[in-house]
Amino acid sequence: MAIGVTQQRLDAVAKVTGRARYTDDLGMPGMRHAAYVRSPRAHALVRSIDTAEALALPGVEAVFTAADVPRRRFATAGHPYSLDPAGADVADRRLLTDHARYHGDEVAIVVARDLLTARKAARLVRVEYEELPVLADAEAALAEGAPLIHAWRGPSNLIGEHAFEAGGSMAEALERADVTVEAFLTTSVQQHCHMEPFTAYAYMEDDAHIVIVSSTQIPHICRRIAAQALGLDWACIRVIKPYVGGGFGAKQDVVLEPMVAFLTWKLGGAPVSLELSREECMACTRTRHGFRMHGKAAARKDGTLTGVSLDVLSNTGGYASHGHSIAAAGGGKLAALYPRAVFSYHARTAYTNYPVAGALRGYGAPQVAHAVECLVEDAARALGMDSVEFRLRNVARPGEVNPYTKKVLDTAGIVECLEKGRDMFRWSERRAACLRTGDLRRGVGVACFSYGSSTYPASVEHAGARMILNQDGSVTMMAGATEIGQGADTAFAQMAAETLGLDFSCFRVVSTQDTDVTPFDTGAYASRQCYVASNAIRRCAEQLRGRILAAAGRMLGQPAESLALRGREVVRAAEREAASPRALLSLRDLALESYYNKEEGGQITAEVAHKTRANAPCFGCTFTEIEVDVPLCRMRVVDLLNVHDSGRIISPGMAVGQVQGGVAMGIGWALYEELLVDDRSGRILNNNLLDYKVPTPPDVPDIGAAFVETHEPSGGYGNKALGEPPIVSPAPALRNALLDATGVAVDELPLSPKTLYRHFAAAGLL
Amino acid sequence: MRQTVTCTVNGKTLTLDVDVRASLLEMLRAEGLTGTKQGCGVGECGACTVLVDDMPVDSCLYLSVWADGRAVRTVEGELRPDGGLSPVQQAYVDAGAVQCGFCTPGLIMSSTAFVERHAGKRVSREDIRRGHAGNLCRCTGYGAIVDAVERCLKTKPE
Amino acid sequence: MFDIRKYRQAATAAEAVRLLVEDPAARCLAGGTDVLVRLRELHPGYDNLVDIHNVAELKPIVLLPDGTLRIGAGATFTDIMESPVVRECAPLLVEAAASVAGPQIRNVGTIGGNLCNGAVSADTAAPVLALNARLRLLGPGGERCLPAAEFHTGPGKVALHPGEVLLSVDIPKDDRQGWGGQYVKYAMREAMDIATIGCAAAVRLRDGRMEDVRLAFAVAAPTPVRCPAAEAAARGRSPDEAAFLAVRKAVVEDVKPRTSWRATAEFRLHIIRTLAGRVLAEAARRAEGARA
Questions:
Q1: What is the CATH number of domain B2-78?
Q2: Single pTM value for the model
Q3: CATH of domain C6-51
Q4: pLDDT in tens, A510-532
Q5: Fold entry, domain C56-174
Q6: Fold designation for A290-456+614-762
Q7: Residue B5: its H or E element
Q8: Most A CBs within 10 Å: which of B21, B31, B138, B152, as the mutation test of the A interface?
Q9: SS3 A405
Q10: What is the interface pTM, i.e. ipTM, of the complex?
């Protein structure tokens, strides 16, 4: 069986030997290099630009400003095209702007023969600005009479607003309750910090076609958006995605590709590369939205959670990017967690002069889950109930209806996750052992979450797969879904091997997506790929198996139904599961015969496009123990365990890797990371890896990962989502542990020493 | 401003005419050794780690002319003479320590130096973490990387 | 490519001095871990370099016949961490070196660069003060020696005269023998970080009392500072809670932390006071085991 076992990653050897080629490892002779001229002000109009000095620098080939780029506005969010114009993303970007809306906005671009010259020349472009009032705060941006950041969009900085009340009325839930808790919570701005910076280059193949090579999560969407930005037919753009050094949602946005396409077009098809510095990546691409939330939770003495309400204000910065989708999705994904309680959710998203926020692992759910799980914890404590016990009484059970989507939860393993975690973590024992007085204190915390497995029904869910039987009997597979480091290619090969009945080693997956060649898929986001692609791969493998067996039947003079595949051979179907079935025909001989018989046969291929019309919630929880040095205002994670219901696990080894990586990012968000912006000037203060604190190896403890395997009928192999979920619950679990250790409810992130200092001082602990 | 640099790179002696403004990273990549990556350019991420006289350095912050007379090792040079993976490379594969792979070449070099220096010594997971503190990885949470190094140290050298 | 406009390599310290005198606008490049970062940022004033990376005479770490520990300015943080004499004679300097960045940076960054760039957050600055080190400088007029306490003159400013280079950090025998010391770097992460506060303490005991006390901080004032008031509060007392409480109170007079976006003055002061007590207590504990 190929599913449920850990196979060696298909790209592991390429990556440990340095042979895996990423965008910047390809390059082309005669490559030109571009560098942006960025606004040093967070909100300003460009009065004039003088490019003469920059153009005079030897090696500079061109400088472009807002006056040179197409006037059309485009949307950058990596969502599938929406047939309903109302569902389209906000088109608020131009390639270059004469109205800077955040610190670092792109007002001009220089192209030179080398990168140093381009960057030096960018500093020689003289720009005169007219300063505008800076709006750093989302609340202020929505105030009456606030200056408009995108005046053409209408009379407000509000991008989106929605509300729902699922599972009943919150007013009634409050009325029925014995205790009500309330909190104001804020979350910080996180940056993806994928290790490979943003980079892309483009060149022209003829007079009409532009090739873009880019480190992107979404090649097919990227093609469409680059074409839209330039006003070209979509097929005029060809996007090639080599190996990608991480994306985490940042590269689910079209950031550089329209510009490199524009530049090569302006430079007569010459190859032009645009490679952002780390500082630019951190300040001028995308971030996680900071949320400000006000919430209430209500519960009865018997331990019934009657309702949770949340009012969310999301700060999207100077451009919409994913805009209100984040706050909308965050609420939607959490609705499955406590289906017997009312979930009342209201969210608004505002433009400000902050750096632009977009998709980042979790897509709004970490923020919303943080609020929900802090409130639920406070409710449990108000009732004097054990935190795990309270959750166990209220979380989803299989067969219940998600009150928001009205869909039945075919699988819901959260009860088992909590029980398994409680045992593995020795929750009660550890809770009893914690010392909660003195300078050095300990505490334990728990939090849980629900998440989605796709974007349906908000967006179309389309996956494409193609399989080819090679002349030597091996199988080449192409998926539209993209490998960005998570291990998708390997999981896909395992799925194909499972259905075809062939050895895992028979498969080669083309890791590069090329929109001229690769089947259509919308890309790596929403933790969707294994779930959505599984159905396409399964059907494609069934199709290929049928065609191989039909050919085998012809060759062997036997009915195809009596035959099966095993290892690298055709065997009798009846012997398929036998210890050592007799090989009737090797796949290699079958392939040679099929390719080269002069009278019949041919290349055996299969191709499937599949639309998934489901979105199974997945679940999980975090257990953690922390130590707090009260006088030094510092907390340390002693131990942390995540338990997940992600349906059937395709590769246990890779799944553990996803969990450990996601949790580490969650610990970073919870304790260390915040992109700092000066509230007065809008200046971004710490956009580098020294001042922005990504956890280093000694900052991360050994992270436990465990699974409760359910069998989800809508997943091709019983599987649900896993990529993003691990980041969702660590932050609230850590906040709850801090509360347990100190009695101080710190409702802002990150729980850094600076934050703890203020709260400990206010609580009289120092 | 150019200068002649004679050094060994992965065991081969090279004499190169380099621009004194070039970093070692740029020199190596221009030689086709693109396995070494640039993640930040300012010594904060470790993706560009190579060994100079068997010591890990950030090649982005190391002038190419400083390599003169020294021995440089990169991820490409770690393969065994028969083309097989080095024990560290193999351990990364076996431990599942590779995800997006962009930090991997730099980490492999840090681990190689660490394993060479600590062979036969008792080393805690905390020691391994501290020994790799100059390498950021955003995918793995480091656990599998520590596992890989532990495996190497437990295996007796051939 | 670094935006280097002028570049000369020095083979000896004397040659470096000569090149710096010839071109007063030039700047020394040692390990490069600060200067090359500035260059990468296209910072003005860093494009004219005298490279002392390979000056062999700056590297040795030796114990002189009179017992002085001499650490060459070109010694890397790794050299310091791994030097048996430093481990034996000045363990708090080992702790300081080990707290710098990560292994790669420590393998090239030097103590000389760390001190001469004038950063108030330099990890070796507080221990060098607590060790009462002398800085040996070579200039066009020859050698001179400066007490460490006179070296940092302001944020980013040091007492190097035009054309001068730092030769070594010297710690006399009496300033290291019989002392117990500790360096604690308080930062937001366990590694790869800049100190929010750096604290070094050294204590020598006599008859169970703190006969000599030195306490120094980085990032607690515009320059790294010694803490005379806190030292006076501890001197002559037995190392107990009451003494450390007095230190925590007195240290406020010695420091002047400022508010920046990295941390508020209030928070820094709280950490300074907490560390003053803790680090001094640990130094005293270690002093009990120190050989006179």
A1: 3.10.20.30
A2: 0.98
A3: 3.30.43
A4: 999 999 999 999 999 999 999 99
A5: 3.30.465
A6: Aldehyde Oxidoreductase; domain 4 (3.30.365)
A7: strand B2-9
A8: B138
A9: coil
A10: 0.98
